Amino acid sequence: MRQSEDLPESSLIKMAKSGNTEAYEILVKKYQKRIYFLCYRMTRAHQSADDLAQETFVKAYFNLTRFKEGLSFFTWIRKIAVNSALNYIKSKKREESLRDRESRVSENALPLYHESPHDKLQKSRTEQKFLESLDTLPFEQKTVFIMKFYENYSYDEIAQILNLPNGTVMSRLNRARKKIREYMSDYSVRSGR
Predict the structure, then answer these.
(1) How far is CA 142 from CA 68, 115, 145, 149, in A?
(2) 9 within a domain of the structure (yes/no)
(3) How far is CA 190 from each of CA 90, 180, 186, 193, rounded to the nearest angstrom?
(4) Which end of the chain is more exposed for a tag (fewer CB within 10 A), N or C?
(5) How confident is the model at residue 29 (pLDDT cuts 50, 70, 90)?
(6) In-domain check, residue 162
């Protein structure tokens, strides 16, 4: 297995397409955290995100023949994950969030300075309020916001995935930003910040 891990992604994909499960496992291990975090940001529920991430890789495996060589494998599975999460959210309407109280620092971010306990508390409260503001958005606006700012999709990619005109994507994103700004502004006034 060690030798296979050193192969280029295109070779792993070819091997997986021909039925080599070991090659596919390497691809899964490479992207499973990123797919999980994408699903978590969309559902805000650990178990749902875990299930959706697994579902994404199962769907991708059974549809490997549809994957066009030369394209980004991650972009392809990310699109599958987004569609799975959107379908899940639509079917569940709004699942009660199981929010983790753990650190909200992204998996790659490192603090640039040592924060005082007071600063950490304020930052944690502000992050919590931001997440609450995100939860207040209508489903359509929340989806576009997450895809743009958490997943870095372009307007064109979002429009294509959601089957919407670009103008609708931009409009929803603009409304989402405005609502988040208003929510955070109200919080700042109430908290004296």
Answers:
(1) 30, 30, 5, 10
(2) yes
(3) 34, 15, 6, 8
(4) N
(5) very high
(6) yes
HSE of 62 in the Cβ direction (CA atoms, 13 Å)? 6
d(CA 180, CA 177): 5
Per-residue pLDDT at 187 = 65
Closest CA to 131 of 180, 172, 88: 180
CA atoms within 13 A on the CB side of 95: 20
| Stronger pLDDT, 92 or 113, i.e. the higher one | 92
- Judged against a pLDDT cut of 60, whether residue 84 lies above it is answered with yes
pLDDT of residue 153: 84
- Rg of the chain, C-alpha, whole Å: 19
Task: Report the mean per-residue pLDDT for the chain.
Answer: 80
Residue 173 in this model has a pLDDT that exceeds 70 = yes
| Tokens 């296979």 belong to residue | 4
Q: Are residues 160 and 90 in the same domain?
A: no
Query: Of the candidates 169, 164, 172, 161, which has an alpha carbon nearest to the alpha carbon of residue 82?
Result: 161
Which parts of the chain are beta strand (E)? Answer: none
Is 107 part of any domain?
no
- Give the domain range for residue 146: 114-193
Number of domains in the chain: 2
- Who wins on pLDDT, 11 or 96? 11
